[in-house]
């Protein structure tokens, strides 16, 4: 079970192809308070080659790094999100019709050896298998449940995936990766429509990221190679505008929790660890949103308590009179 305690939770994705020294230790040092509060939760990407899994370079080296991060967080009692990213170099997983279940099973077995009996602390899943048949996707989650029966699961859909198909997937959290915008802080209208269609108590945005120091980072946000308008605070502006939009959208539709995956921690083109202004924005949004939520609860609590006491009093009076 997720047992979310805050309205807004940010999952910070660590990627194995990023700078390896900017690891779990640095993340814990940076967000120690927020991790303890549960407002920030660590996410680790595990890269898997569709054909040979993690047995050849650089996937073997990346797997060692990723599992070391998972182990570090688990040993400190944190919930860990694990994104199984199945791709060949230079390809996009959204074009795959299927992947080898044998290959995936070998990787899951090795990951299980790292996790041990702590799988209740895992949230594990996939994203953007756009062209993959829903039956194939379901078999992938069956494998995940085989090795991690106590873990929660997620799926992050691509913009054009049908909400109806996404809803049928056997996982706990379902949402759409956010890489398409109509403007600054304004997601594509199709994204909004599809995201709301699959949202229940939790609005889940598994991937949200912006190129560093780019005021127009919302334009082709997935393209790490091109900076449209270099601006030192450009990425911070994009993060704040988009997160505020998502918070407003979630509150408007009565959502209990908003979980957003920040892409990412340690890749030179996207890494928020390099950007003090982005870190400041993330903290600012977290504290303003979650503190407001806490104050609202604390404000209403005395009234709720009084109402409950009054109800008990009336019931007692009724019972006494009947006697």
Describe this structure in words.
There is one protein chain. The chain is of the alpha/beta class and 323 residues long. The chain has a single domain (8-322), classed as Glycosidases (TIM Barrel), CATH 3.20.20.80. The chain is built from 9 helices and 10 strands. An 8-stranded parallel beta sheet has the order 6-5-4-3-2-1-10-9. Strand 4 (122-127), helix 5 (134-147) and strand 5 (152-157) form a beta-alpha-beta unit. Helix 8 (234-252) packs parallel to helix 9 (276-322). It is globular and about 45 Å long. The chain starts with 7 loop residues before the first strand and ends with a helix. The relative contact order is 0.13. Residues 296-314 have low confidence and may be disordered.
Structure described in brief:
This protein is 43% helix and 18% strand. With 323 residues, it is α/β, with parallel strands linked by helices.
SS-based class: alpha/beta
N- to C-terminal distance: 46 Å
Rg from Cα: 21 Å
In sequence order, what are the helices and strands, one letter per element?
EHHEHEHEHEHEEEHEHEH
How many helices? The count is: 9
| Domain tally | 1
Question: Strand order across the biggest sheet?
Answer: 6-5-4-3-2-1-10-9
Helix content: 40-55%
- Going by CATH, the homologous superfamily would be Glycosidases
Per DSSP E runs of 2 or more residues, the count of β-strands stands at 10
By CATH, the architecture is named Alpha-Beta Barrel
Oligomerization category of the chains in this entry: single chain
Shape, per Cα inertia axes: globular
């Amino acid at each position: 079970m997720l047992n979310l305690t805050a309205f807004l939770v940010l999952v910070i994705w660590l990627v194995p192809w990023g700078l390896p020294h900017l690891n779990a230790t640095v993340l814990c040092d940076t967000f120690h308070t927020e991790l303890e509060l549960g407002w920030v939760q660590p996410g680790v990407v595990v890269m898997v080659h569709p054909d040979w899994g993690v047995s050849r370079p650089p996937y073997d080296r990346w797997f060692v790094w990723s599992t070391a991060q998972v182990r570090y967080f688990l040993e400190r009692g944190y919930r860990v999100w694990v994104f199984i990213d199945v791709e060949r170099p230079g390809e996009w997983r959204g074009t795959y019709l299927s992947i080898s279940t044998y290959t995936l099973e070998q990787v899951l077995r090795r990951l299980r050896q790292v996790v041990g009996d702590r799988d209740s602390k895992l949230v594990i899943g996939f994203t953007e298998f756009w062209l993959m048949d829903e039956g194939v996707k379901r078999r992938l989650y069956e494998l995940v449940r085989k090795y991690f029966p106590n873990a929660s699961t997620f799926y992050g859909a691509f913009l054009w995936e049908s909400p109806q198909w996404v809803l049928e997937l056997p996982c706990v959290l379902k949402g759409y990766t956010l890489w398409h915008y109509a403007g600054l802080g304004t997601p594509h209208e199709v994204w909004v429509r599809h995201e709301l269609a699959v949202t229940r108590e939790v609005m889940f945005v598994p991937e949200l990221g912006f190129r560093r120091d780019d005021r127009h980072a919302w334009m082709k946000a997935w393209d790490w190679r091109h900076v449209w308008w270099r601006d030192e605070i450009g990425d911070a502006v994009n993060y704040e505008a988009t997160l505020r939009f998502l918070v407003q959208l979630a509150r408007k539709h009565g959502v209990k929790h908003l979980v957003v995956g920040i892409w990412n921690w340690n890749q030179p083109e996207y890494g928020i660890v390099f950007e003090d202004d982005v870190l400041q924005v993330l903290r600012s949004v977290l504290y303003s949103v979650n503190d407001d939520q806490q104050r609202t609860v604390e404000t209403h609590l005395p009234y709720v308590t009084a109402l409950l006491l009054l109800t008990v009093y009336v019931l007692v009076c009724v019972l006494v009179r009947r006697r």
